[in-house]
Amino acid sequence: MAKGCRALCFAWTRRNLNEVLIDHALASLGDAYVNFIYSLAISNRKGSPLGTKVKGSVLAEALRKAGLRECFPSRMSRHDLADGAEALIVYGWLSRCVSLDESVAMIGMKSDLVEGLSELLAKTKRQITFP
Amino acid sequence: MAKGCRALCFAWTRRNLNEVLIDHALASLGDAYVNFIYSLAISNRKGSPLGTKVKGSVLAEALRKAGLRECFPSRMSRHDLADGAEALIVYGWLSRCVSLDESVAMIGMKSDLVEGLSELLAKTKRQITFP
Fold first, then answer.
1. Rounded Cα distance, A18 and A9, in Å
2. DSSP 8-class letter at A70
3. By the 8 A CB rule, do A94 and A8 touch?
4. What is the pTM of this model?
5. Residues of B with Cβ-Cβ distance to A104 under 8 angstroms
6. Measured between beta carbons, which residues in chain B are less than 8 angstroms from residue A102?
7. What pLDDT, in 10s, does the model give residues B15-71?
8. Which residues of A touch B47 (CB under 8 A)?
9. Which domains are assigned to chain A?
């Protein structure tokens, strides 16, 4: 069972930040996680429950604002950058560096949701550690 | 701020089970939540991260197995029943009656995922309380 995660018993640890950012399996799980925390942040803003999806363009822009674009090779599509953002955000949650509650609060804290996601990405990058 | 939920400040409480089951706003948020916990359960089963979506037919079948079909009016589509399942599952999490970890473990416990979702629905129904 992965360290610190009670109900999770799959191999999610990676050796460094670059491995996280280009991992399509993590990005796939991250898509579900990011949509959920984003939905909670939007629900808070609206005052009632709502499920929604984060656009890839929003995630790619947040990644750039967080200064993480330089961690990728030069020729990457917006889709690849969005995948990287999803992979990193869920890695922060899996490794218990950033909780779900904190993530929702950070996304919703800023009037601009790109800014909120960008702060979450920057915080996750600062706090994650590797084996 | 809703009782027991640190980062959540939207109106999610309902007066009774029937109000939960027919609430489209809760179902909309529930869709994002159920896809995430289901993805974690599937990741555990596969041994590596994977994001996936639960089919409406699977949720409707799980709801029937949990004995919850009788809580709905007679003429309901499979889509309505799936929405009811999503609304109830997220209500259990919002009200802190069933944790995310418990939910993932329950879904993955059974070889048949419909059975796992059905047990989660039955447990949520048993444990939720109303204001």
1. 23
2. G
3. yes
4. 0.94
5. 7-8
6. 7
7. 999 999 999 999 999 999 999 999 999 999 999 999 999 999 999 999 999 999 999
8. 9-11
9. 17-48+55-127 (1.10.1520.20)
